[in-house]
What we know:
63% of the residues lie in helices and 2% in strands. With 412 residues, it is an all-alpha fold. It folds into 2 domains: 6-190, Hypothetical protein af1432 (Orthogonal Bundle), CATH 1.10.3210.10; 222-409, Hypothetical protein af1432 (Orthogonal Bundle). The relative contact order is 0.12.
Amino acid sequence: MPIIRKNLLQALFSGAYLLRWNDKLRPVELLEIDKQAHKMLLACVLWHENSQTMPETERLALARDIIEGGLFDYFYRLIITDIKPPVFYRIKKNPEHFRALTEHVLARLEPQISQLGPFWQRMQTWHSELDQSTLARSILTAAHLFASHWEFCLIKPLNTFDDEMDDIGQSFAKRLDDLRFLKGMNAMLTPNTALSRLANLCGQLRFQIRWTQVPRIPATSVLGHMFVVAAFAYFFSLSVDACMARANNNFFCGLFHDLPELLTRDIISPVKQSVPCLPGILREYEAEELERRIFRPLREEGMALLVERISYYLGIAVGSEFQETVREGGVITKINGFESLQKSCNADALDPKDGQMLKVCDLLAAFLEAHSSIRNGVSSPHLQEAQARIRAKLCESELECLQLEALLADFD
């Protein structure tokens, strides 16, 4: 059974330091971890739209391939970050050169990722496969190109002097056009559709910086935090031998869990907790705005099933994304805690989703944000206090199977 260690979490988090479009003038810093979050949110939408007619086993397998393929490509990207895309694509055209590069990348990643056992083996297979035309890879490519093009549209007005911009723009247009065969892609690329607005709203979460009252390095965004929580949730799902549906749901729930903060901003926990009525007011406002700006437009364009799926990830029917649930025949049922879910509901047919474990991942991501800044020399009494408070909460967790105390001891 995989054991989660410090070096894996830090490797995952390192994308918060990697700048994108580093040779272009940028209105804001564009970070790899934010782009990956945007990409995987779009990949989830495309998975849902392209798998509705599949048998459930194929549908779940496709989701797993998309989730793991996205993580495999992300870890690969962390190593080759200094290679510009045109150079990388040129290397990729030469099988011998690409194989040598891949061997180097995997050797660098092995100490951090081999602890995940079968996941590591699947990663090695993914990067050695010659067939690049599978549905999972097409969806990931489409999501990758859309998220990268979204960033390109941000920087383009500031780089009119740059003679590369026209070629880059034309390349994006051609490659995206080639992927319109995917269900949902045409709507995503058409301005003012419900899907294009959802894709745009997801991208905007990179502008919301967490811990706004506390200077930090790196200054992580809500969007990047969502990706970290999603990946942690997936890794812990593997460590507790979660069924495929549960592991997939946990990743997607982590990925969507802060989507409502686009509508309310990221309000720090002490403020939320200091006013008893504030959490209720926020949840009511979030529900209204989600319905008005996201759910109703999607329903009006025939995507009611997508709304149901996102609502399930957000825990709307049960009042919290951090509540264990199952879903059978469209009926959502609360489950009383992690142990009950683990012992009695860990089956694909029940469409299970964790609650407490996802909360642990949310706290662990916040702990890593605080710890990384303090380690980088940017600290404050508020940050020190937050790190201690989050650590204490994690140590109080009843989920002994996650071995959190041993994990946190590595950060001493």
